[in-house]
Design a protein that fits this description.
Radius of gyration: 24 Å
Strand content: 25-35%
Helix content: 25-40%
Oligomer: single chain
Distance between the termini: 52 Å
Length: about 500
């Protein structure tokens, strides 16, 4: 890196969220620079696997098969109470036991393939904003200091984000009340209980990670919090495990250990001038159900096409503002559902009656669907259209409603992070929608058939993150508005009609 440099977008933090955003920007034609203070990835397992919402995104972008060895699950859970994946209404299943280190490696390789510059060993130590630029100061691990000017800076530097502090971003914070000890261990022979088990004196969760390593989480009811800065040792973990379960972990050793609490923090705003908060820099919470990394990756997919359009002059700042407008409510819901799970799972026998009631409720299909989709990132509907828009508008496109033979073709534009106009037929006659096809640009027009016994409107406009922004019977004026707002410029010429 030279002593002076400029870029359109500087992403600070080469974790899964920062790398996913880098890939999204590159697909849209923007070349970001990614910096990370670490000279090499930690190699730690940390977040394990993907919710169905993220699996759908990876499939939509055509990179799901790069995550080899995913262990698919037949259920999700809410506070340790299993919910069948059949209730999620998706073609996909959740996957766990996939360490974050492997996720980072896949996304880093993808970013490099797309031409993204990832520069390790550089730490951001200061920034100043003007109306046009953010000027940052970066220091290398060897002590070299440079200035880098960027049109936008994205903070993907974690829950203790330095950038969040530098821009004075306020947070709504809940204080910790309970602590969980986490360790990747070897030689312990733990049971496979990935959803956790509640016991009279605490909660334990354990699952294999491969290569003889197991993930162990222990929450001991009533135990005090370790003082901040005290490293977690195998002794801490094994003592708590024995007190909770009565079983010794003698002979086991830890590969990596840490702790976390039920504290939560949510940035009051995600946008601060030309600085954007992403992932854990915007929201931290109890890691119930492994949602944190997944919500951060989904943040990145929401942000990517918007930031690219603004940088390229195809959209104004209102499009970038929609990132905060759409994703901060998701952060609110995330903190609410993880806090609720903490109350139900990390408290003593006094909450058992409530757990019993909830267990009965989730036997009802509607309740199971509601909770299961909420922890899977599938229950999101953005305000993409007028209040009287069809229910489909704002939701992610349901690929299960498209005929099997057309599904790959329908998603091909989305693999390139482009908008798509789907013209839907029932297989009996051509659909004369040339006025609709002529209404918007730039995008791909794809003719598809609906799946048997499923319904799609005759035409659907899908923005680059897979969310529907217009659907028949909305009129052409609304289609043009949606195309301008989310997908690009209004077309002026009329192409040929599409037959399906």
């Amino acid at each position: 890196m030279s002593s002076t440099h400029t870029t359109d977008v500087l992403i600070v933090g080469a974790g899964p969220c920062g790398l996913m955003l880098a890939c999204e920007l590159a697909l849209a034609g923007v070349e970001p620079i990614v910096v990370d203070r670490l000279t090499a990835p930690t190699g730690q397992s940390r977040a394990l696997g993907f919710t169905v919402g993220t699996i759908e995104i990876l499939a939509m972008r055509g990179i799901l098969d790069r995550f080899d060895g995913l262990v698919q699950q037949d259920a999700v859970h809410f506070a340790g109470l299993p919910i069948s994946a059949e209730h999620l209404g998706s073609l996909h299943r959740p996957a766990n036991q996939y360490p974050q280190s492997r996720t980072e490696a896949v996304l880093a390789a993808r970013a490099t393939e797309l031409g993204v510059s990832v520069r390790r060993g550089w730490e951001l130590v200061g920034l100043e904003q003007s109306d046009e630029l953010v000027t940052t100061r970066l220091v290398s691990d060897s002590g070299e200091e440079i200035e880098l000017a960027a049109r936008y800076v994205v903070a993907s530097d974690g829950g203790s984000s330095r950038i969040r502090g530098l821009v004075g971003a306020a947070q709504t914070i809940t204080e910790p009340s309970v602590q969980m000890l986490l360790a990747d261990v070897r030689g312990c022979g733990l049971p496979n209980e990935p959803f956790g088990v509640k016991k009279p004196r605490g909660m334990v969760m354990s699952a294999p990670l491969g290569d003889g390593t197991e993930r162990l989480i222990v929450c001991e009811y009533g135990a005090g919090l370790l003082p901040q800065g005290v490293p977690v040792t195998m002794q801490h973990v094994s003592d708590a495990y024995e007190r909770v379960t009565g079983r010794s972990l003698a002979g086991g050793r830890s590969v990596w250990a840490s702790s976390f609490t039920d504290a939560g923090a949510l940035a009051d705003r995600y946008l601060h001038g030309r600085v954007v908060l992403l992932g854990d820099s915007a929201h931290t919470h109890l890691p119930a159900g492994g949602q944190g990394m997944n919500v951060g990756i989904q943040d990145a997919v929401n942000l990517g096409f918007k930031l690219a359009a603004v940088v390229q002059g195809r959209a104004g700042p209102e499009l970038l503002q929609s990132y905060e407008d759409e994703r901060r409510p998701v952060g609110v819901a995330l903190l609410e559902n993880t806090a609720a799970q903490g109350q139900l799972f990390l408290r003593g026998p006094e909450v058992d009656p409530l757990r019993s009631v909830l267990r009965d409720l989730i036997r009802l299909p509607d309740a199971a669907r509601r909770l299961g989709r909420s922890v899977s990132g599938l229950d999101i509907r953005y305000a993409c259209g007028p209040s009287d828009a069809p229910d489909l508008v704002g939701t992610r496109l349901d690929l299960g409603a498209i005929a099997d033979e057309d599904r790959a073709r329908a998603t091909e534009p989305l693999t390139r992070a482009r908008a798509a106009l789907l013209v839907v037929g029932d297989g009996t006659a051509p659909v004369d929608l040339d006025d609709v096809v002529a209404a918007v640009e730039p995008l791909d027009v794809v003719a598809v058939h609906a799946a048997p016994s499923r319904h799609l409107p005759r035409a659907v406009l899908v923005r680059p993150d897979g969310h529907v922004v217009w659907a028949e019977p909305q009129d052409l004026a609304e289609l043009r508005r949606a195309a301008n707002a989310w997908c690009g410029l209004v077309r002026t010429a009329h192409p040929q009609a599409v037959e399906v």
